[in-house]
Specification:
heterodimer; A: 116 residues; 7-stranded mixed beta sheet; 4-stranded antiparallel beta sheet; 11 strands; globular; B: 115 residues; mainly beta; 0% helix
Chain lengths: 116, 115
């Protein structure tokens, strides 16, 4: 597709359930990022991928959070045993390396997660 | 360590006023990139500008201008003659090479422009 695609756009789940959020980046973009934005807050860095590798996972809030990327393309962010504080908009972005292009991050529309 | 500080949480101005949004960054790299993004009420993040660490030339784009000063590790953003449509949250971001280009964002500055 032309832009970054995220699914689902909205997810309501019960506390304790697992959720998977998917991100389909712009074709050819080698870098992929996950951020979390709580209501009225800034962008909290979670993890980023360069190809299929994740050089920095330091932003993942706990071991309930994991992410993978396959084929240098689609990425899945998994949250196990969801808690109410996980409620937020999860944003995915992709980019080309700054040396090759503008380095601009292209964002998806986000997945809004609500944990009841 | 990589860090971006936007000390101004909220700014309120009246239309046609000039406003400057501050951004201070920390990095150990000599090669890095700085960005500004806009997040209007609709929610989508819009790229505004990128600067390379080796290019301190200031830039102007219409009513927007950016002042990059390595000596003070600042990358400030000025909107001249603000308009109501400028109301949004503005994020400063820093990208440095950590085996890829990790990009982190400041907490954002919410700008209210009143008619």
């Amino acid at each position: 597709g032309a832009g970054v695609s995220q699914s689902p756009s909205n997810k309501v789940t019960e506390k304790g359930k697992d959720v998977e959020l998917r991100c389909d980046p712009i074709s050819g973009h080698t870098a992929l990022y996950w951020y979390r934005q709580s209501l009225g807050q800034g962008l909290e860095f979670l993890i980023y991928f360069q190809g299929n590798s994740a050089p920095d996972k330091s932003g993942l809030p706990s071991d309930r959070f994991s992410a993978e990327r396959t084929g240098g393309s689609v990425s899945t962010l998994t949250i196990q045993r969801t808690q109410q504080e996980d409620s937020a908009v999860y944003l995915c972005a992709s980019s080309s390396p700054p040396g090759l292009a503008n380095g601009e991050l292209f964002f998806g529309e986000g997945s809004r997660l609500t944990v009841l | 360590a990589q860090k971006v500080t936007q000390a101004q949480t909220e700014i309120s101005v009246v239309e046609k006023e000039d406003v400057t949004l501050d951004c201070v960054y920390e990095t150990r790299d000599t090669t890095y990139y700085l960005f500004w993004y806009k997040q209007p009420p609709s929610g989508e993040l819009v790229f505004l500008i990128r600067r390379n660490s080796f290019d301190e030339q200031n830039e102007i784009s219409g009513r927007y201008s950016w002042n990059f000063q390595k000596s003070t590790s600042s990358f400030n953003f000025t909107i001249t003659a603000s308009q109501v449509v400028d109301s949004a949250v503005y994020f400063c971001a820093l990208s440095e090479n950590t085996g890829g280009f990790k990009t982190i964002f400041g907490a954002g500055t919410r700008l209210f422009v009143k008619a």
